[in-house]
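Q: What residues go here?
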């Protein structure tokens, strides 16, 4: 286990602002999606005094040819235990058709941006992107007897009403699940009033070590 110190401003600039980063956009997005999305979710829940942990093992239907998602997250709150089946999507300004939300944007500008971006993801009760819509397929849970909810973890700043909250739920249509949870990584990071935060990452891969050298203010250290 490693502790990763993230310079928030530099991460947002690297993924959403710097034209020089476009050549590394694909690699950076993959690393952010694969190695930072779930740790950021853990950080979000722990800030709210919930116990949260990434569970080992595959997040799939149990069928070798069926869809699979990016991981399982178990959260214990005063209301009980919930298993989240998580799918990650890391569209950013450096993606095709990506758009940029300036760090200095006003509240009204940010709200308008979130609503406009949400329209790209959601269409008549389901996700418009087929890969993201897989999150609405029930997976084979690693723990029996625990409620399971779908959770789409998105880099983009999104919200159907332009609200500040980075975590929200919307109703589904024509799905096994009645609702799906959304976590906006960018909205979460933009809500912080500190220059940096620390997250726990299970393994410091070569990709994560590379990203730490590309983004100023990042530090990797062994967890004590």
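A:
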């Amino acid at each position: 286990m490693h502790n990763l110190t993230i310079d928030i401003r530099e991460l947002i600039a690297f993924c959403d602002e710097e034209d020089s980063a476009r050549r590394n956009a694909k690699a950076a997005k993959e690393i952010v999606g694969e190695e930072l999305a779930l740790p950021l979710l853990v950080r979000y829940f722990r800030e709210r005094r919930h116990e949260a942990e990434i569970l080992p093992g595959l997040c799939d239907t149990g069928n070798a040819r069926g869809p699979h998602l990016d991981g399982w997250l178990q959260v214990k709150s005063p209301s009980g235990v919930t298993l989240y089946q998580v799918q990650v999507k890391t569209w950013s300004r450096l993606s095709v058709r990506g758009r940029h939300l300036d760090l200095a944007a006003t509240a009204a500008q940010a709200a308008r941006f979130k609503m406009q971006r949400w329209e790209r993801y959601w269409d008549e009760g389901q996700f418009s992107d087929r890969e993201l819509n897989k999150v609405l397929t029930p997976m084979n849970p690693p723990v029996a007897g625990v409620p399971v909810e779908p959770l789409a973890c998105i880099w983009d700043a999104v919200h159907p009403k332009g609200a500040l909250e980075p975590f929200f739920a919307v109703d589904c249509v024509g799905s096994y699940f009645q609702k799906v949870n959304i976590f906006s990584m960018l909205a979460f990071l933009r809500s912080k009033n500190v220059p940096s935060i620390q997250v726990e990452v299970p393994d410091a891969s070569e990709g994560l070590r590379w990203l730490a050298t590309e983004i100023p203010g990042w530090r990797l250290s062994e967890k004590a």
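A: Context that may help when evaluating the design: The longest strand covers residues 80-89. The mean pLDDT is 86.
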